[in-house]
């Protein structure tokens, strides 16, 4: 992993390959290693992959009171350091929230945005209350019990039953995150802006990957968001919940690959005609 110093905090990333850059952003209580079995396929197809540990996860330091926008700025700082621009950004769940904030702040730096089990809507009051409960739980019981209870619920039950090793690995990794980092991310998600207008205004294609069995993103939200952008590629995964990169790995690799190829071709055409 490489690191940058972002406003006094370490932010870690890994860059591999050459070609059109695809930035992969993980979700809550995960880190860039979640893409380790997913990205080789993209590399083999000639893409460049940049995987980032968002603040508080993996090898990135906790940034106290970080916001989702703050995370987007940290991502931009890495891209500036690497001098890659524009990119295809694919964010899983919380990573999608960061991707949307990035799209609002730095629209010129995107050639496509992928929302992998994510959405643009702000938290409802109920969701915010739920997050405050989990913050209290982490403060009381510590982060390990929290991640042990949380992570299995992200998968479809039958997949979780037959992939216990994967789950154990994710729980093991997440058990090393500091409680303050998990709490900061929960607060950041609770306070994040609604990005509906961002999706509506986006001039680049959007990829939606949706799990039919997702218990984390409500079904109505999943469907409603898909009509917001001008150009969208929408995929429903019939047997997946919130973790399609594992639950339907080959299918979702193909979706990301085809989407990135399309975005790249479209950006090149636009450059030629400009
Ligand atoms: C995630 O997987 O990143 C989270 O479930 C997103 C959220 O809590 O809204």
Describe the structure.
α4 packs across α5. The protein has an 8-stranded mixed beta sheet with strand order 1-2-4-3-5-6-7-8, sandwiched between helices. It is of the alpha/beta class and 274 residues long. It contains 12 helices and 8 strands. The chain has one domain: Alpha/Beta hydrolase fold, catalytic domain (Rossmann fold). α1 links the parallel β3 and β4. The mean pLDDT is 96. The protein binds D-malate.
Write the layout of secondary structure elements.
Elements: E1 2-6, E2 9-16, E3 21-25, H1 39-44, E4 48-52, H2 68-82, E5 87-92, H3 94-105, E6 110-116, H4 125-141, H5 143-150, H6 157-162, H7 164-174, H8 179-190, H9 196-201, E7 206-211, H10 219-224, E8 232-237, H11 244-247, H12 249-273
Helix pairs in contact: 2-3, 4-5, 4-8
Bound molecules: D-malate.
Low-confidence stretches: none
**Quaternary structure:** single chain
Q: Can you say what the CATH homologous superfamily is?
A: Alpha/Beta hydrolase fold, catalytic domain
- In DSSP terms, counting alpha (H) and pi (I) runs of 4 or more, how many helices? 12
Report the CATH C-level class: Alpha Beta
Structural class per helix/strand content?
alpha/beta
CATH topology: Rossmann fold
Strand content: 15-25%
Silhouette = globular
E-strand count? 8
Write out the distinct hetero groups bound to the structure. D-malate
Major sheet, described briefly?
Answer: 8 strands, mixed
- Spatially, the strands of the biggest sheet line up as 1-2-4-3-5-6-7-8
């Amino acid at each position: 992993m490489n690191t940058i110093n972002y406003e006094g905090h370490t932010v870690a990333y890994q860059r591999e390959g050459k070609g059109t850059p695809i930035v992969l952003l993980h979700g809550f209580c995960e880190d860039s290693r979640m893409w380790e079995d997913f990205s080789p396929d993209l590399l083999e197809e000639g893409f460049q992959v940049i995987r980032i540990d968002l603040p508080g996860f993996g090898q990135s330091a906790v940034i106290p009171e970080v916001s989702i926008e703050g995370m987007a700025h940290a991502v931009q700082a890495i891209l500036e350091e690497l001098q890659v621009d524009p990119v295809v950004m694919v964010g899983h769940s919380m990573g999608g929230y960061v991707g949307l904030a990035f799209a609002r702040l730095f629209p010129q730096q995107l050639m496509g945005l992928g929302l992998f089990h994510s959405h643009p809507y702000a938290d409802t009051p109920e969701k915010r209350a739920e997050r405050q409960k989990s913050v209290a739980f982490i403060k009381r019981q510590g982060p390990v019990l929290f991640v042990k209870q949380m992570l299995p619920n992200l998968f479809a039950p039958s997949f979780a039953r037959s992939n216990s090793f994967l789950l154990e690995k994710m729980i093991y990794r997440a058990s090393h995150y500091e409680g303050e980092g998990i709490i900061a991310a929960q607060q950041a998600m609770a306070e994040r802006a609604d990005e509906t207008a961002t999706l509506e205004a986006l001039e680049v294609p959007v990829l939606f990957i949706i799990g039919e069995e997702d218990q984390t993103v409500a079904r109505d939200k999943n469907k409603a968001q898909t009509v917001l952008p001008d150009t969208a590629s929408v995929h429903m995964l019939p047997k997946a919940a919130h973790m399609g990169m594992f639950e339907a790995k080959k299918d979702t690799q193909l979706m990301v690959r085809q989407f990135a190829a399309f975005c790249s071709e479209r950006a090149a055409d636009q450059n030629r005609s400009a």
